Amino acid sequence: METSASKAEPARSSYPIDPEQAAELARLMQQDHLVTEAMGGLFPEGQSLPRGGQVLDLACGPGGWAMQVALAHPSVEVIGVDLSPGVIDYARAQARSRHLTNVAFVVMDIRQPLTFADASFDLINGRFLFSFMTPTAWSALLSECRRLLKPGGTIRLTETEGPLTTSPATERLFALGYAALKRAGQSFSPDGNHIGITPVLPRLLRRAGFEEVRLHASAAEWSSDTPLHYAFFKDEMVALDLSLPFLVRMGMGSEEELRRLYQQAVAEMQADDFCALWTWLTVWGRRPT
């Protein structure tokens, strides 16, 4: 299977956070494990992988999900692709440290044609692609996924509209983030009040020619009196902190204003009466045989 990346100039990332920051790499690794566990496992919807199968993980980041699949399915080959060379180097180092020989990581921009042969994969996975995809880029990506899947192969995408909390400051930061994504052209929302990816994702798959498109919703509670509180709080604390420069660039407020709002959000998320949910929607479909 060909896995060489394009020789063209590196594409510019539209991810709101610098993914090569140490804090972001650590956060994404922890988030992969946290979300997978909260969703009920790697494939809670019931997908199966054939022995000797091939799996592609889109925008794999530091490789947490891909390595979990490789560890759980030693007869399967897993390939993760990501735009950032630094992130891919980190993922490769993590795989070596875990002695995983059935996972590989390659620098590729999923907004461009991927350098894999037709019908290479049994399953293609993607999680939280809303964070850098534009609405116009989805059609090309899904067409490419259909090309890369074997007949009968599965595409599986998990997206979110973000957490819901009882913290006024946290909700305000989330709202500013959604508005910033809208201003950056990375939102399906008609008004910038939410992300807007989950209501359109099933139709996107159907229009790309996938059959038997199905949905599975999951949620995790991370209120102050729950076991998941600290882990999700830490994830959001780091994510919001690293997102502040993006909000400033998008004109959502001054650095001083946003920093004060962030500090208030951190305090409110640690209050005894804090309540929160994070929900996800997984949509999957099959390439026609």
Q: What fraction of the residues are assigned to beta strands by DSSP?
A: 15-25%
Question: What is the typical, i.e. mean, pLDDT?
Answer: 95
Output the helix-strand order: HEHEHEEHEEHHEHHE
Give the termini separation.
21 Å
Q: So how many helices?
A: 8
- The percent of residues in helical segments reads 25-40%
Rg over C-alpha atoms, rounded to the nearest angstrom: 19 Å
| Major sheet attributes | 8 strands, mixed
User: How many strand elements?
Assistant: 8
Name its key features.
20% strand; 289 residues; eight-stranded mixed beta sheet; 8 strands; alpha/beta
Please outline the helices and strands.
Layout: H1 22-39, E1 54-58, H2 64-72, E2 77-82, H3 85-97, E3 103-107, E4 121-127, H4 138-148, E5 149-159, E6 163-165, H5 168-183, H6 197-207, E7 211-221, H7 229-249, H8 255-269, E8 276-286
Parallel strand pairs: 1-2, 1-4, 2-3, 4-5
Antiparallel strand pairs: 5-8, 6-8, 7-8
Helix pairs in contact: 1-7, 5-7, 5-8, 7-8
